[in-house]
Design brief:
Blueprint lengths: L1 H35 L2 H36 L10 H5 L1 H37 L4 H33 L4
Helix pairs in contact: 1-2, 1-5, 2-4, 4-5
The structure holds protoporphyrin IX containing FE.
Length: 168
């Protein structure tokens, strides 16, 4: 069992790296480069790469939920703990709740970005890059993307406290 647990933690961390690494590459490298170039091409490029990264991202989310649940189980967490006030108030319980809360936010922001604002932005940019609609949707998509990047940093920070405890 310990070998399976170690494998689960390893896969969990790899899935987190794939999602966070991909997101930061898009935000810090691809989008700024596209902004300096041809806007109509940028729309097509963003649509193509956005759709591909969407599949990667949601696959990572599924892997994180499965391995994360198994990791919790191996750390002795059971469903009944989520209704026990003393566990909910414990440092470990607070880490788990904070992490699951942040993860739910990431899922909501990702769903709006990946299935609504993102696709509409790339179509509007492709159709008429200078239009007010393209500009509005591009700004919204960018805000959601950066919001998710910040949430990702918070999740990893809480993940560290889950394993090593809070600094205070
Ligand atoms: C975007 C989502 C997530 C990210 C980025 C993430 C990231 C991480 C990272 C980096 C660690 C290693 C921390 C360390 O060793 O210091 C970790 C551990 C852990 N994660 Fe996640 N995680 C995510 C979602 C989840 C979910 C949804 C669950 C529960 C269902 C979960 C449960 C756990 C558990 C229990 C550990 C401790 C593993 C151990 O026993 O050492 N995580 N996570």
């Amino acid at each position: 069992m310990p070998a399976l647990y170690l494998l689960s933690v390893w896969i969990h961390i790899l899935a987190a790296m794939a999602w966070i690494g991909g997101m930061f590459f898009l935000v810090l490298v691809v989008v700024p480069w596209l902004r300096a170039g041809d806007r109509a091409l940028a729309g097509a490029f963003l649509r193509e790469t956005g759709e591909r990264f969407r599949s990667v991202g949601w696959t990572c989310f599924a892997i994180l939920v499965v391995t994360g649940t198994f990791n919790l189980y191996m750390r002795g967490v059971r469903l009944g703990d989520f209704v026990r006030p003393e566990w909910l108030a414990s440092p470990f319980g607070r880490s788990v709740l904070s992490k699951l809360g942040l993860f739910a936010l990431v899922l909501a922001v990702s769903a709006v970005h990946d299935f609504s604002v993102g696709p509409r932005a790339s179509v509007a940019i492709q159709r008429d890059p200078g239009s007010p609609e393209a500009e509005r949707l591009r700004r919204q998509a960018s805000l959601l993307g950066r919001g998710n990047a910040l949430l990702a940093l918070a999740i990893v920070a809480v993940a560290v406290t889950l394993v090593r405890g809070w600094p205070w």
